[in-house]
Amino acid sequence: MSAGIPSALLMDGTAVARRIVEQAAADAAALKAQAGVTPCLATVLVGSDPASVTYVRMKQNRSAKAGIGSRHVELPETATTAELVATLTGLSQDPEVHGILLQHPVPPHIDERAAFEAIAPEKDVDGVTMHSFAAMAFGEPGFASATPGGILRLLDAYSVDLAGRHAVIVGRSPILGKPVGMLLLARDATVTYCHSKTADLAALTRRADILVAAVGRPRFLTGDAVKAGAVVIDAGYNPGNVGDVDFPSAAEKASLITPVPGGVGPMTIAVLLEQTVAAARWQVARG
């Protein structure tokens, strides 16, 4: 393979996500026809961070296209943890709201974990509560964290056999790194978590059959850190449409690789919408 020409097959998250959203739209229409209920996703934004505003608007637009209603709540940058918790508690108790998304990160003075835990588990369609994490870890019913869930769906779409494979996760955040490891473990992968204190990181990543980059640092993992033939999942998104993986060099080594944008990002939104419809269906059935 000549220099600069990727040898890896691109994992097209946009195309896979489109199929998931189409099915979610059909399910939403069926629920409306059968029960007269339109699934509703509530988004909560604290402050006016431009990237967060864009993400929320994108999720609202995708919801509308899928026949999913949306409700948006904006709180000022100065909002307290108590005010945010009260907002999320109110939405959790509102029968017309079926799913809740708190756009993160929140301002640093807010206790993000306390805010997440104010979301009722049956409405935690972003999979951010401790209840959802425990459900993922124990294989019990519940909602997967949206990005990790999207990663698993993308691996499935490309028929990646996970059983017995060595998965290395670079990053240990509670809404990405940790839960994606739990989901991979549940599929019989052998999972190694790496982080800022990991010694000789490259020695570990070079052993990975499945390498997940979730560290939040642009182009952090280069081709030198990738095992030949590995599946590389870039879950990072940094300014300038750059992921956590140096795409050109990694693509020379990988067998499958996600682009940024167009890889993991669309899958996150697709799983969020799918889980919102599932939440609505469950809440209607429960009465």
Automatic annotation (TrEMBL):
Descriptive protein name: Bifunctional protein FolD
Alphabetical list of HAMAP family matching this protein: THF_DHG_CYH (MF_01576)
Record note on quaternary structure: Homodimer.
Stored Gene3D superfamilies: Leucine Dehydrogenase, chain A, domain 1 (3.40.50.10860), NAD(P)-binding Rossmann-like Domain (3.40.50.720)
Pathway membership, UniProt: One-carbon metabolism; tetrahydrofolate interconversion
Family affiliation: Belongs to the tetrahydrofolate dehydrogenase/cyclohydrolase family.
The organism's taxonomic lineage, starting at the top: Bacteria, Bacillati, Actinomycetota, Actinomycetes, Catenulisporales
Entry EC number(s): 1.5.1.5, 3.5.4.9
Domain Tetrahydrofolate dehydrogenase/cyclohydrolase NAD(P)-binding: start-end pairs: 145-282
